[in-house]
Amino acid sequence: MGLSTHVLDTMHGCPAAGMAVELFTTAGGQAEPVKSFVLNHDGRAPDGPLYDSSSLKRGTFRLVFDVAAYFKARGVALPEPSFLDKVSIDFGIAEPQQHYHVPLLVSPWSYSTYRGS
After folding, report:
1. Cβ(61)–Cβ(100) under 8 Å?
2. Would you say the pTM of this structure is higher than 0.85?
3. CB 2 within 8 A of CB 99
4. What distance in Å separates the CA atoms of residue 9 and residue 15, rounded to the nearest whole number?
5. Mind listing the pLDDT tens digit for each residue in 10-68?
6. N or C: which end of the chain has fewer CB within 10 A?
7. Are β-strands 32-38 and 14-15 bridged in parallel, bridged antiparallel, or unpaired?
8. Which domains does the chain possess?
9. CA-based torsion, 92, 18, 44, 115: positive or negative
């Protein structure tokens, strides 16, 4: 239970190990930083869930994924400016007793997300 994320690099067919991610709360239109982290070898937050079930609250949030820096570090030649720089996903938690999983499937030119399990 709680809140988690997972990033898959669809260009290389692997987890996006080493990608920087930031988490914000966005109550009242103001983004307040919660934590920053770098994805582990499996493309997940190294410390486990971003919020556990006891600390997740109803509200709005933003995850920001540093996509361009990740692909540049992998040696991908990107145009300047890159098509995707940072990908932001704004989402809401309506029922904090449930698990919310926010996966990102990403390449230098496209991305997709959904509410996972």
Report:
1. no
2. yes
3. yes
4. 6
5. 999 999 999 999 999 999 889 999 999 999 999 999 999 999 999 999 999 999 999 99
6. C
7. unpaired
8. 2-113 (2.60.40.180)
9. positive
